[in-house]
Hints:
Trefoil (Acidic Fibroblast Growth Factor, subunit A), 3 domains, 1 helix, 8-stranded antiparallel β-sheet, mainly beta
Amino acid sequence: xxxxxxxxxxxIFNSPFQVYAINVAVRRIGxxxxxxxxxxxxxxxxxxxxxxSCPDSHVLNPSADKAFASCCLPxxxxxxxxxxxxxxxxxxxxxxxxxxTGYICCPTGHTYDxxxxxxxxxxxxxxxxxxxxxxxxxxxxxxxEPEECSSGLKTGKCYTFLxxxxxxLGYTRTGGYYNSAPDSRDRIFGKFQLCRxxxxxxxxxxxxGDELYIKxxxxxxxxxxxxxxWMNNAxxxxxxGKTPDFARAGRFAITKWPCAKYCITGAEFGLGPxxxxxxxxLTFYTRSSEPCVPFExxxxxxxxxxxxxxxxxxxxxxxxxDKIDCSERECHK
Length: 333
């Protein structure tokens, strides 16, 4: 039989072969249909060839299940199914809505309330405005996306380590090891620079499982000795101290921990207290890989004389910057 030409004209709407949808006319496709050159054909009842084609101004678009087809404008795609509605939507759009609100083409991921398309987020200059507490980022296309989880730590930055006893981890010259205790003329808290290698290339992310080396930029009070040395690899009861020899540097690792803390362990071995004490010291556990020591980390300037230190406070009453990352501030020097 002669191919039927499908259009959106009223005369064609009256065809008994058409299925009516809310937004665009479609027609059911027969079994084992062949789509070629903007037309579809199949063998119908009685062995007759059946089918239809679209005008040159439109493009034949089958539904995703190949059960229906419609004539859409170039660049459009037939969306949805016979259980909802059909429409020809532009690239980057899907059919949104419900039986109660009606259906319309909206940007992918948006909903339709019967009046407007919306993604449920506030818009600023027609772009999605995502707040930091939503843990979302605004992409270059102006869309909200979940923020990628990260440790918040980077190489080359400096931190203090606060123990659960309320004291900062630091090096005591008398004992020659690190512990969490009050400062004195013989001991000062550590200013620890986190490194992934000997040269401590800055800006590299630090993730759980990464091998980490810790450099203490502080030297012993009064004479400044031992500044810029590595926390060492003392293990199995030996007190972790410091060393200028990178070959003897401790191989650490760090992970986020509940209650805004970080737990420090070894890249291969566990880490824990040497013995029960009010001012605990540290050692690697070579026979146990999981132990770690929770600390509260606060980012501090690596040098107390850097002009960028002017930028680490927020404006306003609360001038305490984020404890982990104080660098993302616009600085007017």
